[in-house]
Amino acid sequence: MSDRVEFAVMNGLGNKILVIDMRGRTDRVTPAAAIALAADPATAFDQIMAIHDPRVDGTDAYIDILNCDGSKAQACGNGTRCVVQALASETGRKSFTFQTVAGILNAVEHPDGTISVDMGKPVFAWDKIPLSEEFHDTSRIELQIGPIDAPILHSPSAMSMGNPHAVFWVDRDPMTYDLERFGPLLENHPIFPEKANITLAQVTSKTSMITRTWERGAGLTLACGSAACAAGVSAARTGRTERKVTITVASSPNRGTLTIDWRPDDKVVMTGPAEWEWSGTVDPVTGSWQRDVSADAEAATP
């Protein structure tokens, strides 16, 4: 078995994604390889999406997701869009069904190049998110940062989109908050036994929001698809917005947008872009990589 496999450096609204092709192999991308790739500025990423042969009939691939610290992730919406774009370019197909730890995901590439991913159904039960304390109503849990009588952040909505999320409601641009300082404290708060993604959300109308996310296992990220889903669902759940919203991701390049639609069947569909940057080969055990110069030249040809 060759030491190297093909991989692509991509992004979804700036969310840095490595798509690694592990089809035809029985091994996995190791945590050591993930950490080495994350430490290299050329391949630094938020998530690795490793494409494996399907394990379940009716699916096109099994997707193994890793964070930049080598830990496993259950879901990554922006990364799933990148996988769809890569496979659509390879096969000419437009619709796919993937298996992940979080469940089965269906996705489709539209004629305009945007990609919709069915992210599944939200989970609100406190012990399924999970939380370490029982809350009858997880749309507002007791958690705050700052002085007791004047907290900076407080009373987030908690839920799971296959991974745990806490959405804090803010009344000004999320970029004006020191999320780099608050993020690690909240991600690792004892109330989240499996840690949590932390999102600041500013509602700007019944159909629009602005968000910024500290991502579990990755830190400050330019974008997080599952967090956008959590913010959109939580906003509708608490009566702040309608069930279909446009989310401006404040930290993404040019403040890109995602459309989140919490459909009547309870499924959450996220629509947004994906972008290929460059490709090469990588050793999934060590993280040693090489850039494909010929692919760069082909992409640059008018």
UniProtKB/TrEMBL annotation:
Matching InterPro entries: DAP_epimerase_AS, DAP_epimerase_DapF
Gene3D superfamilies: Diaminopimelate Epimerase, Chain A, domain 1
Pathway: Amino-acid biosynthesis; L-lysine biosynthesis via DAP pathway; DL-2,6-diaminopimelate from LL-2,6-diaminopimelate: step 1/1
Active site: 76, 224
Enzyme class: isomerase
Enzyme nomenclature, EC number: 5.1.1.7
UniProt-annotated site: Could be important to modulate the pK values of the two catalytic cysteine residues, residues: 165, 215
Entry keyword annotation includes Amino-acid biosynthesis: yes
Positions contributing to substrate binding: 15, 47, 67, 77-78, 163, 197, 215-216, 225-226
Major location (coarse): cytoplasm
Localization terms from the record: Cytoplasm
Signal sequence segment: none
GO MF annotations in UniProt: diaminopimelate epimerase activity
Catalyzed reactions per annotation: (2S,6S)-2,6-diaminopimelate = meso-2,6-diaminopimelate
Pfam families the UniProt entry points to: DAP_epimerase
Keywords for the protein's UniProt record, in alphabetical order: Amino-acid biosynthesis, Cytoplasm, Isomerase, Lysine biosynthesis
Subunit structure and binding partners: Homodimer.
HAMAP family in UniProt: DAP_epimerase (MF_00197)
Protein family per UniProt: Belongs to the diaminopimelate epimerase family.
Biological role stated in the UniProt entry: Catalyzes the stereoinversion of LL-2,6-diaminopimelate (L,L-DAP) to meso-diaminopimelate (meso-DAP), a precursor of L-lysine and an essential component of the bacterial peptidoglycan.
Name assigned to this protein: Diaminopimelate epimerase
Organism: Peteryoungia aggregata LMG 23059
Upper taxonomic lineage: Bacteria, Pseudomonadati, Pseudomonadota, Alphaproteobacteria, Hyphomicrobiales
